[in-house]
């Protein structure tokens, strides 16, 4: 079934048959007339295509836009053959592009989606016209880097950890209540938004609907655990990720923030030092998902980079 999203009339919510199952996609038709390239948007761990909804209309100035739910997340069901690994998600994203009829495309990836985009662009350079990495889940150069959490990580994760542990303890004795859930949800939102109270309620409602509804074949817990194991294996030996960074041929834009609790700014700066030919923006006081936190800045940075790339 195809429907328009309330509040975003240019964005449709529909199913695409791909890889032996219906995959949920959000799509926006091209509105521009020059320099058009399809835009494929890949979300992060535990998220869904909805995380891109605020920038889809703006991106459609550069070509048709599709944001996809990865298997096990959002509204895309699993199949018995899904490996639920980064390599498996790379293959899935390529399959989506094939079924859309896109021989090549601009790939945007946030967090785990950025890691997927990195590996895809390195292995299949002829498929990726341009690459946009938004706080990509790339590891420090050595595992020892994981032992030095940034101030942003401490400030962002400690309240979430405390509320989660408290909820677990009180839940055992039956005392956990809605107030504690609200504090935990607020701590999670602060990983993305500086002021959770100022977030557009329509965006939160879309995100919440993906979690609230039971969707046949969608097993978020299984997908979350399996994908986390796959990411952890790559982070335990970072050489594969860093080799992929060095192999990428596509013009690449990297954006992130100094207040990101999940991907420290020092990792992003290390990536940019390795690839000085990439354009990078590590923005003060920005967090983990710029396209949600500050869609206007995301589009402004992308528009400028795209224009410069076309003029080069």
The count of β-strands is: 9
Number of helices: 11
Query: Any idea what the shape is?
Result: globular
Q: What is the average per-residue confidence, as pLDDT, rounded to a whole number?
A: 84
Report on the biggest sheet.
9 strands, mixed
State the separation between the terminal residues, measured CA to CA.
42 Å
Low-confidence stretches: 152-181
Percent strand: 15-25%
Helix content: 40-55%
Structural class based on helices, strands and sheet pairing: alpha/beta
Succession of helices and strands:
EEEEHEHEHEHHHHHEHEHH
Instruction: Kindly provide the radius of gyration, computed on alpha-carbon positions and rounded to a whole number of angstroms.
Output: 19 Å
Q: How would you write the strand order of the largest sheet?
A: 1-2-3-5-4-6-7-8-9
Detailed description of the structure:
It is a single chain. This protein has a 9-stranded mixed beta sheet, sandwiched between helices. It is globular. The chain is built from 11 helices and 9 strands. Strand 2 (8-18) and strand 3 form a beta hairpin. The chain has helices at residues 53-59, 86-100, 112-123, 151-172, 178-189, 201-212, 220-236, 239-247, 265-274, 290-293, 295-311; strands at 3-5, 8-18, 21-28, 39-42, 65-68, 105-110, 128-134, 252-257, 279-283. The relative contact order is 0.15. Residues 152-181 have low confidence and may be disordered. It is 44% helix and 17% strand. It has 312 residues and is an alpha/beta fold.
